[in-house]
Design a protein that fits this description.
Pfam families: TMEM175. Keywords: Ion channel, Ion transport, Membrane, Potassium, Potassium channel, Potassium transport, Transmembrane, Transmembrane helix, Transport. It is found in: Membrane. The chain has helices spanning about 10-40, 45-50, 55-80, 85-100, 105-110, 115-140, 155-175, 190-204. By secondary structure, it is mainly α. The protein has one domain (about 20-204). Helix 1 runs parallel beside helix 4 (about 85-100) and helix 3 (about 55-80) packs parallel to helix 6 (about 115-140). The protein starts with 10 loop residues before the first helix and ends with a helix.
Length: about 200
């Protein structure tokens, strides 16, 4: 994909992205905040606020970890970008959309718990974010004028994104087809590092 580079520092794009991510993380906790007055109206004790709302707490912690990880990868990638183009902006907007949407399936996790559709929707949203991140990598690699002259994207970053996308695709298929696996399929992501190391070993 050949794109016309916009010779401007991408910091404004990065700052905007960081602000949207911060808002999305804040939205994650709002359902938990609302749990407290509801528990009080239902006559629940303080400890029952925790024990009776474990799915909501699980969803919050899982999504907080997921968004943090996605943001770290995105943030580190833009350290190697010195300009931007319209395709890069659009792909970044797609990535942001997945981050903004994630609180929605997170709320569904809290309400519906171990539901196959909810698990699939949740994992598919994460997969979409990783695919957009892979798209950002491909756009910059196809247009060297977008990359930093002193610190271009490292060669291992693209295989890392592709590996994560492949593992998430497998996780999605397993969550939708194998009973009772659901969110446990996300543990497949721990295979990402060994797979990447093996790939680089055989590439040498």
């Amino acid at each position: 994909m050949i794109a016309v580079a916009i010779p401007r520092d991408p910091d404004r794009l990065v700052y905007f992205t960081d602000a949207v991510v911060a808002i999305a993380v804040t939205l994650l906790v709002l359902p938990l905040v609302n749990v407290v007055p509801q528990a009080e109206r239902n006559g629940q004790s303080a400890s029952e606020v925790i024990t009776e709302h474990q799915p909501e707490i699980f969803g919050f912690l899982l999504s907080f970890a997921v968004i943090t990880r996605l943001w770290l990868v995105h943030h580190n990638f833009f350290r190697h970008v010195r300009a931007y183009s319209k395709p890069l902006i659009m792909c970044n907007a797609g990535w942001l959309l997945t981050i903004v949407v994630l609180p929605f399936p997170t709320e569904m996790v809290g309400v519906y718990g171990d539901d196959r559709f909810t698990a699939g929707f949740y994992i598919a949203t994460i997969l979409a974010a990783v695919l957009f991140q892979t798209g950002l990598e491909l756009i910059v690699r196809a247009n060297p004028e977008l990359a930093s002259e002193t610190s271009p994207p490292p060669p291992e970053s693209l295989p890392g994104s592709v590996t994560a996308a492949a593992l998430l695709t497998l996780a999605l298929v397993l969550a939708l087809t194998v009973p009772n696996l659901y969110y446990w399929t996300l543990l497949l992501l721990f295979l990402s590092s060994p797979i990447e190391k093996t790939w680089h070993k055989y590439r040498r």
